[in-house]
């Protein structure tokens, strides 16, 4: 007589002929059929899954940032704090994924690199949306998506909306009775540090107990950017480790291009004001 454990004895449902199963709910057949290597190279599967899972996490980031911006516009900051903390942890998850990809050596990568053609993470519309939502806006990047009109429209529409940081700055204005110059809220380019904004955040940090909600919001934004910067840095080191200084498959300069991206500041005033406290 077998003494194997039978979950049904404890009430577990074992038949799903008429009910939704785990695989049904997650659309598992379609999900697991999406990995289609174009070469016979063993490591191509790793490369595909690395990037597909990254895109899934980025989809969640966009879901959280979109909701956070709406709630912030409504002044519901406590809910926003939870969402921004979640986004920071998602970037931590994405950071950890680079450790897996770094198990692929340059020799491994060369066995399937030609199969990628001109495709590149540089072309990720979700990554670009994240940057646009956080304030790093470059209209030139829209051209990459002209072949997909629906994506181009979505990115163009985001360029017309205030960024998450813009909404935070409106709260800062209201709390301190200020009015920042129009250039602080430009929509057609990356946000640049402004002395009046630095001075305003400095006031918040010098009296945090008087402005606790904004103080906490500022720290949540810094935390998010901190993890985002780590993700970018790990991207650079992973690419350098795997392909050295070759050009990227999408035509970028590769590592030099990624290093330039390390200089981007999403919320510059929150960093620049620290030295003056």
- The best one-word shape is globular
| Main sheet specs | none
Count of the separate structural domains: 1
H/E element order: HHHHHHHHHHHH
Quickly count the helices. 12
What is the helix fraction of residues, given as a range? 55-70%
Write the CATH architecture name: Up-down Bundle
CATH class group: Mainly Alpha
N-to-C terminal Cα separation, in Å?
74 Å
Annotation, overall tally of beta strands? 0
What's the gyration radius in Å?
A: 23 Å
Q: Which spans have pLDDT < 50 for at least 5 consecutive residues?
A: none
Helix/sheet category: mainly alpha
Brief synopsis:
It contains 12 helices and no strands.
Structure description:
Helix content is 57%, strand content 0%. The chain is mostly helical and 277 residues long. The chain has a single domain (43-111, 125-276), classed as Methane Monooxygenase Hydroxylase, Chain G, domain 1 (Up-down Bundle), CATH 1.20.58.480.
């Amino acid at each position: 007589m077998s003494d194997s454990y039978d979950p049904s004895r404890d009430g577990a449902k074992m038949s799903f002929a008429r009910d939704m199963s785990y695989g049904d709910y997650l659309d598992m057949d379609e999900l697991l059929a999406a990995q289609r290597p174009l070469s016979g190279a063993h490591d191509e599967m790793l490369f595909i899954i690395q990037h597909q899972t990254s895109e899934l996490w980025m989809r969640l980031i966009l879901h959280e940032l979109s909701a956070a911006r709406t709630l912030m516009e409504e002044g519901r900051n406590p809910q926003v704090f939870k969402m921004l903390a979640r986004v920071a942890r998602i970037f931590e998850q994405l950071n950890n994924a680079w450790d897996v990809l770094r198990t692929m050596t340059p020799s491994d990568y060369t066995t399937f690199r030609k199969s990628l053609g001109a495709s590149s993470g540089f072309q990720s519309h979700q990554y670009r949306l994240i940057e646009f939502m956080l304030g790093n806006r470059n209209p030139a990047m829209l051209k990459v998506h002209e072949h997909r009109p629906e994506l181009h429209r979505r990115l163009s529409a985001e360029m017309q909306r205030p960024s998450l940081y813009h909404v935070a700055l409106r709260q800062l204005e209201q709390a301190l009775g200020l009015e920042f110059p129009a250039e602080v809220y430009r929509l057609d380019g990356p946000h640049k540090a402004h002395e009046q904004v630095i001075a305003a955040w400095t006031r918040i940090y010098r009296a945090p107990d008087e402005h606790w909600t904004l103080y906490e919001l500022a720290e949540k934004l810094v935390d998010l950017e901190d993890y985002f910067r780590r993700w970018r840095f790990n991207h650079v080191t992973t690419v350098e480790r795997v392909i050295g200084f070759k050009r990227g498959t999408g035509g970028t300069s590769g590592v030099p291009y990624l290093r330039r991206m390390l200089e981007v500041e999403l919320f510059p005033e929150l960093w620049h004001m620290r030295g003056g406290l």
